[in-house]
């Protein structure tokens, strides 16, 4: 699961003891929770809009191979088929309780690990691509763009599925697995292109700095 999905997940529902409170404090707590939920949903929508913008820019740039362009469509169709035939929601109560809840409830260190992993996997490659645009290095941009395209689709899919009651926890767990497996091969090709398959031009000039 991506760090953005973990960071934006909703807190668990309060227990029976937490629901019991006296008049004024009860309404005050509800208003505070509503304000926090509104801000969180606003941030979530902003992240989704940014991801959609990334996906559209990457798709229109012509730097994404055809297989990587088709993969999100096939993965989404496979996830929908799993939710209907293999892992459907059992009842309305379980579906409502699973909507918007956190799938992996790890410790604080686990959250920090996932967020750091998302930062390394998303923001650093994005800076690498922007630097490639600034340097005019089309080879580096073409090698790194498929990784960012698939990761943006993964985060967007996790956020959308996490807010719907139509998908059970096994189906939600399949989303990062599918995209991670595909991105492993994309990253291997990226490393091969940048480190092993990059050749210098014939008229390359070497600069010696003292």
Jot down its keywords.
single chain; 210 residues; mainly alpha; 8 helices; globular
Short characterization:
By secondary structure, the protein is mainly α. The protein has 8 helices and no strands.
Can you describe this structure?
The chain has 210 residues and is mainly alpha-helical. It has one domain. It is 74% helix and 0% strand. It is built from eight helices and no strands. Helix 7 (138-162) runs antiparallel to helix 8. The protein is globular, with a radius of gyration of 21 Å. The protein starts with a helix and ends in a 14-residue tail after the last helix. The relative contact order is 0.15. Mean pLDDT is 74; it is low at 17-24, 26-42 and 93-98.
Question: What's the helix and strand layout?
Answer:
Blueprint: H1 3-7, H2 16-19, H3 23-60, H4 66-86, H5 92-98, H6 108-135, H7 138-162, H8 169-196
Helix pairs in contact: 3-7, 4-8, 6-7, 7-8
Radius of gyration, in Å, reads: 21 Å
**Overall spatial form:** globular
> How many β-strand runs?
0
Helix/strand order? HHHHHHHH
Number of domains: 1
Helical residues, percent:
over 70%
Structural class: mainly alpha
Q: In DSSP terms, counting alpha (H) and pi (I) runs of 4 or more, how many helices?
A: 8
**Low-confidence parts:** 17-24, 26-42, 93-98
- Distance N to C terminus: 47 Å
């Amino acid at each position: 699961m991506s760090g953005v999905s973990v960071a934006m997940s909703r807190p668990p529902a309060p227990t029976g003891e937490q629901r019991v409170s006296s008049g004024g404090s009860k309404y005050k707590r509800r208003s505070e929770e509503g304000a926090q939920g509104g801000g969180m949903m606003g941030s979530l929508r902003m992240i989704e809009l940014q991801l959609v913008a990334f996906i559209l820019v990457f798709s229109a740039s012509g730097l994404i191979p055809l297989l990587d362009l088709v993969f999100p469509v096939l993965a989404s169709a496979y996830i929908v088929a799993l939710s209907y035939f293999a892992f459907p929601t059992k009842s309305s109560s379980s579906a409502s309780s699973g909507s918007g809840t956190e799938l992996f409830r790890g410790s604080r260190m686990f959250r920090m690990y996932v967020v750091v992993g998302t930062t390394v996997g998303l923001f650093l490659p994005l800076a690498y691509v922007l630097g490639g645009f600034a340097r005019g290095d089309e080879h580096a941009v073409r090698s790194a763009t498929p990784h960012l395209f698939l990761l943006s689709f993964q985060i967007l899919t996790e956020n959308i599925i996490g807010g719907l009651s139509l998908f059970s926890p096994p189906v939600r767990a399949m989303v990062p697995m599918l995209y991670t497996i595909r991105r492993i091969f994309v990253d291997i090709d990226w490393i091969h292109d940048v480190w092993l398959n990059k050749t210098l031009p014939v008229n390359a000039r070497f600069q010696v700095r003292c």
